[in-house]
Design a protein that fits this description.
Length: 279
């Protein structure tokens, strides 16, 4: 403390008094770890950095990101995201994580679609198959069974993927398909719904791909097969509504005996393919 103006030789008796109290300290200083909130997920280890009042996460193999939230084995895209060098092959995925549906085996194509990691699920109805001798609408049916996966497991895969698709094709010889609503053929969604559109279309009723751009063999119909002439024709394309996929059944008709010629068709159904991240 510094003071002045207390000169004894002045005209008056100048003086002053000072008082300084004791230094008193109280209260607790809590040394809280930056990892107190457990910020690292999926089994990642939080490493505190006290000098910066921060932390970093050391992720388990297969996970990455600031908080280890990305990656894992939910889909092939998740696997590829944190393992850029991952090779194509068979993998076990768990789309809804621990505690959900049982993990299942798929094929991961790590080079297709720009190397994003495509989950591929095969089934028992991929071969080109003849339809003949079934005249009534939908009287022919083909149930589709997927390899090593239930419909519940596949629904969890589509929900965990940004995009899913499945190729479908019908080759027809005087065999009608959607016929502007008087359907002879259709596909069945995973929820057992008879779908009214064909591959290459996303939910527009009674349309095949040619019906969207007005290029069908007979433009008064929505599909090439609906021209119903004695020529081989085809309607094909990708189904992309992941809330409806995968296809669980295909139905066809109008392939009964004819007095002039033989009506027939062939169906082909591709593998279910899903890719892309949802976070």
């Amino acid at each position: 403390m510094i003071f002045g103006d207390t000169d004894l030789w002045g005209s008056g008796d100048e003086k002053g008094y000072h008082t300084l109290g004791k230094l008193e300290c109280y209260g607790l200083i809590l040394n809280i770890s930056p990892c107190e909130s457990a910020p690292c997920k999926n089994g990642g280890v939080c490493v505190p950095e006290y000098e910066r009042n921060s932390y970093h996460c050391e992720c388990k193999p297969g996970f990455c990101g600031t908080h280890c939230k990305r990656g894992g084995n939910r889909t092939c895209s998740d696997i590829k995201y944190c393992n850029p060098e991952a090779k194509s092959g068979s993998y076990v995925i768990d789309p809804d994580g621990e505690g959900g549906v049982k993990p299942f085996k798929v094929f991961c194509n790590m080079t297709d679609k720009g190397g994003i990691g495509v989950t591929v699920v095969s089934h028992d109805s991929e071969n080109r198959t003849q339809v003949n001798g079934y005249e009534d609408p939908g009287s022919y049916w083909r149930n589709v069974t997927y390899d090593e996966a239930s419909l519940i497991q596949l629904a969890s895969l589509t929900a965990s993927s940004f995009h899913c698709e499945q190729f479908i094709k019908y080759e027809c010889y005087n065999s009608r398909l959607l016929l502007n609503g008087s359907m002879f053929g259709w596909w069945v969604s995973r929820d057992d719904e008879n779908m009214t559109y064909w591959g290459g279309v996303n939910s527009v009723p009674f349309k095949c791909a040619c019906g969207l751009n007005n290029t069908c063999a007979d433009r008064s119909y929505g599909c090439n097969c609906d021209k119903n002439d004695w020529k081989w024709r085809e309607d094909s394309g990708l189904l992309t509504d992941k809330c409806k996929l995968p296809v669980i059944q295909m139905r066809f008709g109008d392939t009964g005996p004819s007095s002039n010629n033989k009506e027939e068709g062939y169906h082909t159904l591709g593998k279910l393919e899903c890719y892309g991240l949802t976070y």
